[in-house]
Amino acid sequence: MDGPLFKRALLGSLSWLSANHEEANRLNVFPVPDGDTGTNMLLTLQSAVEDIKESNAAEVSKIAKLASHGSLMGARGNSGVILSQIFRGFARAVEGKSELSPRELAAAFEEAANAAYRAVNKPTEGTILTVAREAGRAASAAASDADASVPGVAFAVNGGGGPEPLTTRAITNSLNRITAPSTAPDGASSFSMDATGRSSASSRPTGWTCSPCSPWTRRTAPCT
Questions:
Q1: Domain residues for 79?
Q2: Which residues, in sequence order, are CB contacts of 128 under 8 Å at separation 6+?
Q3: CA 65, CA 164: separation in Å to the nearest integer?
Q4: Is the pLDDT of residue 123 over 80?
Q5: Is the predicted pLDDT of residue 113 greater than 60, yes or no?
Q6: HSE-CB of 116 using CA atoms within 13 angstroms
Q7: Whether the Cβ atoms of residue 117 and residue 85 lie closer than 8 Å to each other
Q8: N or C terminus of the chain: which is more exposed, having fewer CB within 10 Å?
Q9: CA 118, CA 195: separation in Å to the nearest integer?
């Protein structure tokens, strides 16, 4: 997998989520049944794609880094911030790589899940974390085959194309509290979010402020 292929995969993911985010909203029952998980993930993914859409980078690492940055800047709600951590873990795993072999792709999926788990104070199973972990395991199993291929790994991550693919089960829930050390933008050292979606920064980033709808929102007026 090279940069252009990864970019196409993200564009395809955005198309899929745009068509299915309402299903994810209906599945949203944790920590509160507010029915916005699919919407929050869609907005977060849109921000990631916004950062990559003009890039012609050939290296998968460059596209992954852009997507990670975009998802963090545009993260919405608990599920969106967790998604941004998945992107962050993937980007770190592929840092410096021009393209990925099946094993490298599988390792990146596993590290993406690990990064998300590490960012959560109290990981709760049955959420997007569980699906990210199982997707990584499926990728690793597919990559271990003698005739493994990048499309084969991607197929495994999607649940093998069965009647209930992992991607459909993935977006079920937000988490009650997340902390993402050293990932806040523009100098903030950390941020956390409670079950209501309210965020707090241990060091406010320059030009940004916390809000209930997003962990970081560009401010248009001075903070009060």
A1: 3-178
A2: 79, 82, 83, 86, 116, 170, 171, 172, 173, 175
A3: 30
A4: yes
A5: yes
A6: 33
A7: no
A8: C
A9: 18
Q: Report pLDDT for 128.
A: 86
Name the amino acid, one letter, at 147.
D
Nearest to 175 by CA among 88, 223, 218, 116: 116
**Does this model's pTM top 0.85?**
no
User: Taking CA 166 as the corner, what is the angle to CA 49 and CA 62, rounded to the nearest 5 degrees?
Assistant: 30
| Residue 78 banded pLDDT, cuts 50, 70, 90 | confident
In a domain, 210, yes or no: no
Kindly report which listed range (14-28, 31-45, 128-142, 187-201) carries the lowest average pLDDT score.
187-201
Strands annotated E in the chain: 178-179, 191-193, 199-201, 208-211, 214-218
Nearest to 153, CA basis, from 186, 109, 115: 109
| Domain-embedded: residue 159 | yes
pLDDT of residue 126: 80
User: CATH number of the domain that 70 lies in?
Assistant: 1.25.40
In a domain, 57, yes or no: yes
Residue 148 located in a structural domain: yes
Residue whose C-alpha is closest to residue 209's, from 221, 196, 194, 197:
221
The pair phi, psi for residue 201, each rounded to 5°, is -110, 140
Domain count, the chain: 1
Token pair in block for residue 1: 């997998």
